[in-house]
Amino acid sequence: MFPDARIPYGTWGSSYFPAWQQSALAEVNIGQFAGEAMGKILGHRRVPKSELDYLVIGSTIPWHWKFWNAPLVASCLGERLPGYHLEQACATGLQAVIAAGAEVQSGAHDTVGVLTFDRTSDSPVGVFPERRSYQRTIPLADVWDNFGFDPATGNAMIATAGRAARKYRVDRREVDDLALYRTEQYFEAKRSGFLDRVLFPFDVLNVQGKPLGRIEDDLGVRPLTSDALRAMRELDTCVTGGTQTHASDGMACLLVTDAKKAAALSPRPEIDIRFVAKAEIRTEPSLMPEAPAIAVQKLLERTHLTMDGIAVVKNHNPFAVNDAVFAKALDYDWRKMNRTGCSLVWGHPQGPTLTRILIEALEEAVDLGGGRVLVFGCAAGDVGIAALFEVGERGNR
Amino acid sequence: MKTMRQSTLQTLGLGDVLDMFRAGRLPADAGALVDRVFGEPAQRGALVISGCNGIVGAGKMMQLGSRLDPFDVPVVGLDFPGAPDGIAKQYPGLVRAFGKESADRMMARMVRLTYDGKRLPESLAAFRPRFLLEAIPEILEIKRAHYDLFRNAYPGIEIRSVTSGFPSSQLGVGIAHPAFPHEVNKVFEMVEPQPSDVTRLFWAIGLIPVPVSDDWSFVLDVLFCGITLAALRYHRDTNMPVWKIDKYVRKHVGPNPVRAHDAIGTAGASFLTWSCLHHLAEHYGPLFEPTPELVGRKDSGLSWYPPDHFRPVVDWPLDADGEADLQTRIVGPLVQMTALMLHENRAHLTHLNAMGELCAQFRRGILAVLRELGPEKSIRIVERYHRSHPEAAQTAWHADALARMEEPAWRQLYVNAEHDGKVGVITIARERYNRDVDAELNRAIDWLKQDGIDRVIVTSDFHLSTQMVGADTGEFFPALDDVDEGFRVSESWSRTARRLHGEFAVSVGFVAGKRCLGGFLELLSHCHYLVSVDDAQLGLPEVTLPVVPGMEGCHWPFRKCPSGEWGRLLHLALTGKSVHARDAVGWLVDFAGPLDQALACAWETVAGGGNGLQRRPFAEGPLADVTSRLPNLPPTGSSAAEVARSAILATIRDACGAPLADALAIQAKHSAEFMASAVCRRGAVGQERDRTQV
């Protein structure tokens, strides 16, 4: 797709994603935190921030001074970079990476930082004066009111999961089993030390410079049992508290650059990470969980590939139903997906979710010795997005 | 005359300290020097400060204006018509220092004129300019043209530039480079072929002129710009924000170099730092190459620290390895730069060492730090630093300059000794007593004893140390958690002090400056006599910190004091309030008078002349009921000080109640135990540790 663009291995990182209201991240300007955190991640990765010449940021929830956009976040990173803000609901974290690839491929910039972040805790309340509306002035809580109402259909997010489960005749027992399996995958990745390679702890300061809290865990993730899942009340078809994600706060970042610079910046220059393809679709109203599967089908058709040719499959799955639908639509064993965890388990801060998923997927592919990496997910408006990357050895295709 | 090493006064052409005592007067008279620099009173010429509204110019208008005020020297400030008024900002400080009436009088005497940079105002001639202190921007051509302007108009005028970087050979005038903050810092780096009347006048009016060689950026700005550069280079390499690097630099060296730029004024300070480093890099190579961030700041003037509304969110703690690496990358270049200055003989080692402490917030002098490390470790630090900055190894690395640490000039950075075969003088060039001073004082005593000298005066150096403010509280940080360390410090320092009492036939402590407090008062009290200028403040402020005096202040002075005056000593120790020396004669000091009289008295006393003082009896046995003389004391105003007051009172009771042989250990035990208490950790010493040790 972008033959000249590369993602330098091992220059990425993410914060942990503590559940909303459970950590010091609930108290910060998340744009500032993200900028400072990216500086620290790059420092840990031995990438001087001066190597960047552009910054694409992605977030979905308004934050203080967001008008000032990527340049402000770059200042918090410690470098006066140009850049812009990109937003596409839960697809933001992947779309921002694609956009950075386009910047490099076009020759506009050499090394582009991708920085996605969101704080669902205490999301702002917007007041929208609309005189021709019968309500005239509408206050809107950015996270919960949007989750609860798709203005295009009048339905809530959760209703789309129920509708998709019914359309695909998904079984509640299978969804519970799937959610349990996903949780076990996450805890196994954590136990193995895999997450330590992509997640960074951060000490958050208050305005006096004193410790406010340490962000060192995906707070809110709890081990599940089969019995507990079975006992949970169904909120819509196949959707319970245990089979859907939770809101959280966090950031994630990576770099996109050309092949030569990628080799120079990476601690393992022999690893070559390329962009292969991207697809995006919008499905029928209120069937959001099937959208990613359709996007993947489109992607495979266009690349003339099958799922057998994919080494790592990882997705944003706010509902366990997403994975069950995907498995049916693609005739794919959901146990082979999300081997190091997924947003169903570790939470969903929206903007950075798919960036962390991509980082984990690429790291997993490197562990496997390379191969194609499929990352996909759903987004508000019944949208599905999918992208394919290839992890190989430098000089070999 | 024999000296351990060259006295720093000799670098000013002012002779030795011992000569001063023998003569009974200072070697330079301010009035006579004013006449020589500015002309006789009837024809008194003016001091002109060009660039008077800048930070340097305005500060020096205040400082020199106030010090020359008694001599009716007109002070004329010159600047562009549109220059923002920098002098009015200084007025509140002047009021604080001198009171409103005097401040108003001084301001009234300061004349402000404007010019266009090309022609001097005609009205300037009426003031008969005799001495120009140039404080205009650091642009060589502009400075040179400026001097021509003055020389053409006023042939023979003395000119000094405040430049922080350009050598005198480039400018064509002498240098008087002042240190920040300019309204109060007394240090000037002076570049001139021989010490001039201007330099001696500066000394005579209480400033601290320091001769340095004519090399780029002299000493101070090699150190200050150098450590700033090291911090910025670390920032560039690691992304660690400058505010956090500053904290680590403060922990390991002392200053917050980057914060200092914002405090001084980012645009001007960054330009000056860039200018110094740029020229140093042109001359010496990549060791001094400014980082792109500094180049950008000199043009943008953007603050280094984030604004208040973006106070940092993410902390950057380092593990032990990371901190060691940071230390190498900060201290390494500093060592290399210091070796370069040593190689070029840029200054008397005492000056080179003190410059960082006096003007750049270094916790210890750079040479004292290197001396403690030793040559091998110092060189290894530079070599480790070169791994992260290999270009710096290519030029300007003079490891051999670090090889002479055993020479007297290296060994006696703070303490010097002189003697004439009969009488010795020990001078201390540091205002705060620390382990370096303690070690050097012991070596000075050894040296005098070795030469058979048993009569000694102990005093400040009449140059770098203008007051003696007590112990360096940074020395107590380890003792906050380790009672044994507190005992060791107290016990060893007390033993040093006792040598002044026990190893000389006559010892005279001499207070020349405006105050002698805490540990220094305890030290000098160990001398057989204490002589002071009459307006010096003497005190034991430990109770306010709070700590318990550790150098025998809780019993030694009582043993020399008539029992009827014990109440005064108790008041001194338990309130922390100081007294004028003139009010302490007979119970704390033996003589107080004007400086000339005090010098003469000290000399007569030590040299055994007929007008010497009567030695007060010294009680070596237990003193009974000292604390029963407790006067009515005002409340301390804080619970911590009340606890300290009780602890000091208990120490006085126990130490005075013991024979001299036992009292040292008793005092040290009390002092150490209090130092390790929660009260002390929460007090000024503990807070200072928490603030500076990350």
TrEMBL record, chain A:
UniProt entry tagged with the keyword Hydrolase: no
Any Pfam family matching the protein: Thiolase_N
Origin: domain of life: Bacteria
InterPro entries in alphabetical order: Thiolase, Thiolase-like, Thiolase_C, Thiolase_N
Domain called Thiolase N-terminal: residue spans: 22-258
UniProt-annotated catalytic positions: 90 (acyl-thioester intermediate), 348 (proton acceptor), 378 (proton acceptor)
Example GO molecular function: acyltransferase activity, transferring groups other than amino-acyl groups
Domain Thiolase C-terminal: 277-390
Keyword Transferase (UniProt): yes
Keywords: Acyltransferase, Transferase
Family to which the UniProt record says this protein belongs: Belongs to the thiolase-like superfamily. Thiolase family.
Protein name from the UniProt record: Thiolase family protein
Organism per entry: Eiseniibacteriota bacterium
UniProtKB/TrEMBL annotation, chain B:
Entry-linked CDD domains: crotonase-like
Highest taxon of the lineage: Bacteria
InterPro entries: ClpP/crotonase-like_dom_sf
The name this protein goes by in its record: Enoyl-CoA hydratase/isomerase family protein
